[in-house]
Amino acid sequence: MCDNNMKNFVLFILLFFTSCVTFIPVAEEFQPLHLRLLSSNDVIKAAAIDEFDKLKNKEQIDVQLRMVELLEKEEMPEKRIKILNMLQELKADHNVIIPLIYAVSKNSTILEYKEIIYFLVVTKTDKDTVRQLLKLLNDKNWIVVQLALVSLASNPEESKIAIPEMVDTMKRYIGDREKYFKIFDIISMVNPEVSILSLIKDFKNKDSKIRQEIFEKLIELQVFLGSKLEVKKEILPALIRGLYDEDNNISKMAQETLKEINDPVAKKALESYLNMGKVLFDSFMKLTGKSMQDFFKSQDTRIDNRLKEIYKSIGREDAVK
């Protein structure tokens, strides 16, 4: 009887301590290094940084990657910012870019990517990372695609070989105004000439809504771009093309825009249009057996040739179409 009581008592003690161990958190100073680096305790954090500095390069990268993994599930924005700031303080480089993009893309609680985008902009890519980022441009998840593009723009010199794929990605999203122009802006960070020439090429899209959105962007560029930028000379012919667009809204926008442009070519084009009229112009085109696209073919050829030159200069002859 006594033995049974003793056994029950021992069992009770074991269960008690086992349950207590389950709920007692590990003291912060004994947590893994990647967690101690994020400590709010200045003493613990300072000791962790000192320990990190003594690690070999590969070991440091492993610690940084463990911090990146936290971004996949961290729900608190301020904690995510803390992780990103610490990664910068630890001088995280291209090794964390791809894992970070995948980690944050899986976190459904992230509503604002501003800090993440900033981190990717200041973290320069290298050649190997550029190749990996190119694969991400085909991902079905828009967040992955967007962040991959942002990362490519962080180092224009290394990323210029990715320009053809970036342009193809822009075309793929042409039906989504917000995403299309976000990609346009990102490509402009790498090569503004390519982004503008590609935009003008897309103005030939069959969808009038898409043409109108592109035309509005061309008007904006005409107003705000400096005259020293060589590619600006191709915007005016595109605006003149808008006069003869089959969509009356675009035609009217073109008329109003050209009235405000202090340029002899613009004034002459508008005068010719007003004298002939759209109906007579269409009739003239039919009589000559030509289309509007034939009439403006010289610009199309000029743009295509220039894009070929640029693609060849970056070693991407394979992308010339």
Overview of the structural elements:
This protein is elongated. The chain has 321 residues and is an all-alpha fold. The chain has helices spanning 2-23, 33-36, 42-53, 57-70, 77-89, 97-105, 114-122, 127-136, 142-153, 156-159, 163-172, 177-190, 192-202, 208-224, 235-243, 248-260, 264-288, 292-295, 297-313.
Give a quick precis of the structure.
By secondary structure, the protein is mainly α.
Distance between the termini: 92 Å
Q: State the shape.
A: elongated
Give the H and E element order. Answer: HHHHHHHHHHHHHHHHHHH
Total number of strands: 0
Helix fraction? over 70%
Beta-strand percentage? under 5%
Low-confidence stretches: 9-24
Sheet having the most strands: none
On the 0 to 100 scale, the average pLDDT is: 89
Structural class: mainly alpha
Number of helices: 19
Write the layout of secondary structure elements.
Elements: H1 2-23, H2 33-36, H3 42-53, H4 57-70, H5 77-89, H6 97-105, H7 114-122, H8 127-136, H9 142-153, H10 156-159, H11 163-172, H12 177-190, H13 192-202, H14 208-224, H15 235-243, H16 248-260, H17 264-288, H18 292-295, H19 297-313
Helix pairs in contact: 4-5, 6-9, 7-9, 8-9, 9-12, 11-12, 12-13, 14-15, 14-16, 15-16, 15-17
Output the keywords.
321 residues; mainly alpha; elongated
